[in-house]
Design goal:
The chain is an all-alpha fold and 153 residues long. It has one domain: Globin-like (Orthogonal Bundle). One of its GO terms (molecular function) is oxygen carrier activity. It catalyses: Fe(III)-heme b-[protein] + nitric oxide + H2O = Fe(II)-heme b-[protein] + nitrite + 2 H(+); H2O2 + AH2 = A + 2 H2O; 2 superoxide + 2 H(+) = H2O2 + O2; Fe(II)-heme b-[protein] + nitric oxide + O2 = Fe(III)-heme b-[protein] + nitrate. Pfam families: Globin.
């Protein structure tokens, strides 16, 4: 298996993720707004969001909300497959390829998003939640970086 998580780690990571995924759209939106605010260069990849400067404006935007929810849905698919590396890769590979080849998103942005999700988890649910999900974000980012390498980044 390509996954380095024990069964116990998978369970606690899922428990932590479920808490934040309950409000997938709001929390996904909050993560993107924080990314766009703290790393304004990341907005350049999103034609719809380029002109938005205020967090309030972003919060009201259907495009930002829609993408926030999409990000959380994609991570949710991965979290559901943490104990099945074939299914996990079946989710991660197409996502990585699309971002590498079609969207040409710098892979460092995946780490930024994951770190912001961990921050939000810690703020909302405490350090244990963050700690139990950290290995998952490392797993996701490692796989995405490998896919990028294969695509010649």
């Amino acid at each position: 298996s390509t996954m380095s998580l024990s069964e116990a780690e998978v369970q606690s990571a899922r428990g932590a993720w479920e808490k934040i995924y309950v409000d997938a759209e709001d929390n996904g939106t909050a993560v993107l707004i924080r990314m766009f605010t703290e790393h304004p260069d990341t907005k350049s990849y999103f034609t719809h969001f380029k002109g938005m400067d205020s967090a309030e404006e972003m919060k009201q935007s259907d495009q930002v909300r829609g993408h926030g929810k999409k990000v959380f849905s994609a991570i949710n698919d991965m979290v559901q497959h943490l104990d099945n590396s074939e299914a996990f890769l079946g989710t991660v590979i197409p996502l990585g390829k699309k971002h590498a080849t079609q969207l040409k998103i710098d892979p460092k942005n995946f780490r930024i998003i994951c770190d912001i999700i961990l921050q939000l988890m810690e703020e909302k649910f405490g350090r244990d939640s963050k700690a139990s999900f950290e290995k998952v974000t490392n797993e996701i980012c490692t796989h995405l970086n490998n896919i990028y390498k294969e695509e010649g980044w």
